[in-house]
Amino acid sequence: MSAWLEPGRVLLLGGGNMGAAMAGGWLAAGLAPGRLVVVDPRAGAALRPVLDAGAVHLEAPGGEAADIVVLAVKPQVLDAALPALLPVLKESTLLISIAAGRTIASIEAVLGARPVVRAMPNTPALIGRGITGAFANGRVSDTARASAEALLSACGPMEWVGEEGGIDAVTAVSGSGPAYVFLMAEALAEAGAKAGLAPDLALRLARHTVAGAGELMIRSGEEPAQLRRNVTSPNGTTQAALDVLMAEGGLGPLLERAVAAAKARAEELSRN
């Protein structure tokens, strides 16, 4: 972990699966355990390795002021949880929120005008393979931005968007995206079983195919379209399948509609 983070006190509000995964990533990256305070009424199993490493667990915010506060509670309880943070906030405290659908304005309505980063990680962060999109408001300094980037990239790469509304599109693509991939693996396994494979074998083949193809995309650096062409022989079996998937109304248009629906719902949640 970069030296600029070491003098600060990081307070994590919410020790569920995602919060615990992020905290574990910070410690693995070199954050001193004594600098991390986790505020959660109940310390679940996911949080145990973090606490065993030396992080401080509190049931409610308290103690010295925090330099960075990460909001990792569920959106529906965020409003009730925010006021208790006021005694541990400084004017310069950086707030990082991963609460889905909660705007920066809604946070400032409770805590006042502050440097805030709104972020959307995804569930592969639980195994250190996530990706996060983030937006920083105008009060976030270059130093605070670097701090946010270090914390958010501890469980996988992160990308900045230029406007807060971009987080809704990030939510639709990568935030919800793992579910699309899981559905594809599920459907591929079911299709394999209908083609004559034993269901458990079809599922193993689908799982490893999806995981391996994803890893190949990351490691090769080639565009997905080129990787698709690399594995497609003219008039071969893959081409026969792609003729179905790439037909009018096929996978591309279907995913476009799915992402648009998810983005519209994210925008609706952000307005509420």
From TrEMBL:
Keywords of this entry: Amino-acid biosynthesis, Cytoplasm, NADP, Oxidoreductase, Proline biosynthesis
Oxidoreductase as UniProt keyword: yes
Record EC number: 1.5.1.2
Catalytic activity: L-proline + NADP(+) = (S)-1-pyrroline-5-carboxylate + NADPH + 2 H(+); L-proline + NAD(+) = (S)-1-pyrroline-5-carboxylate + NADH + 2 H(+)
Domain Pyrroline-5-carboxylate reductase dimerisation per the UniProt entry, residue ranges: 166-269
Pathway the protein acts in: Amino-acid biosynthesis; L-proline biosynthesis; L-proline from L-glutamate 5-semialdehyde: step 1/1
Cell compartments where the protein resides: Cytoplasm
Gene Ontology MF terms in the entry: pyrroline-5-carboxylate reductase activity
Keyword Oxidoreductase listed: yes
Cross-referenced InterPro entries: 6-PGluconate_DH-like_C_sf, NAD(P)-bd_dom_sf, P5C_Rdtase_cat_N, P5CR_dimer, Pyrroline-COOH_reductase
Residue span(s) of domain Pyrroline-5-carboxylate reductase catalytic N-terminal: 10-101
HAMAP family: P5C_reductase
Family according to the record: Belongs to the pyrroline-5-carboxylate reductase family.
PANTHER family according to UniProt: PYRROLINE-5-CARBOXYLATE REDUCTASE, PYRROLINE-5-CARBOXYLATE REDUCTASE 3
Described purpose of this protein according to its UniProt entry: Catalyzes the reduction of 1-pyrroline-5-carboxylate (PCA) to L-proline.
Name of this protein: Pyrroline-5-carboxylate reductase
Originating species: Aureimonas populi
Gene field: proC
